[in-house]
Amino acid sequence: MSATSDKQSTLQYLKDYKPHIEGRQLRVLVYGPAVAGKSSFINSVKSVLEGRICTLALVDNISHDCFTKKIEKENPNTFYPFVFNDIMGLSDRKGVLVEDVKLALMGRVKDDYVFNPEHKLSEGDQYYNTTVNPNDKVHVLVCVIPADTVNQMRDEVIRKIQEIRKAASDLEIPQVAIITKIDKACPDIKEDLKNVYKSVYLKEKMEQLSVNVGILMNCIFPVRNYFEETDLNDEVDSLVLRTLRNIINYGEEFMNHKMSQSEDSDK
């Protein structure tokens, strides 16, 4: 299968995707250091699905907002059955509080909550979700790290990532990592994006990321986000689509597993 036909096949798969469980919505929580490319990835997903360069999330998301983003389909007022939670970046000083991320994983944070780096969300707050339905909970946790700063991650940021990962593991939530800005980290990739799977340098960065945060190599996906472009690029699209398809598959498997557990407990 050629790269173009493979891209079209994956694109069609994502356009046709529906959770096996009726009425369910797959929720993806995207987190990581500030300016890692979290919002740019969501924008890139929207661009590829719509076939044009789009802006959905705020790209420099260093603000305190939580953005729950739905992506509209070709028919007005119809949306893909997956949403992204794009939260403010982790930091060694300020940034999103780990305790708030843990609450978000459990579906306790309402979509319009403004994250406060000084005070965690508490039960009884108007933005604390007391009644949680399955669509409120996170089904896939995605850590976004820039390839050009993997070796510069501060110990405190790594500790926070590991703590968030531990909370997600306790909830059995599947986890992946996206390594962004690969063209900045590797001149060969900047020259030709097709070199992404040949680059020894990028592989070393991915291995370092795996060691730092404990995510397996086969769960780390290289991505080149759209940022300044005005037109789509097949190679960029293919990386974004491959990553999104894996995220969707992990989330679908998790939802089905949870449903199976629920049915077993009812017997």
Q: What structural class do the secondary elements suggest?
A: alpha/beta
Distance between the termini: 46 Å
Give the CATH class. Alpha Beta
Q: How many individual helices?
A: 8
* CATH architecture descriptor name: 3-Layer(aba) Sandwich
The proportion of strand residues reads: 5-15%
- Number of DSSP strand runs: 6
Question: How many separate domains make up the residues?
Answer: 1
Query: Major sheet: size, sense and barrel closure?
Result: 6 strands, mixed
- The CATH topology is what? Rossmann fold
**Strand and helix order:** HEHEEHEHEHHHEH
Rounded to the nearest angstrom, the radius of gyration is 18 Å
How are strands sequenced across the largest beta sheet? 2-3-1-4-5-6
CATH superfamily annotation? P-loop containing nucleotide triphosphate hydrolases
Query: Shape, please?
Result: globular
Helix content: 40-55%
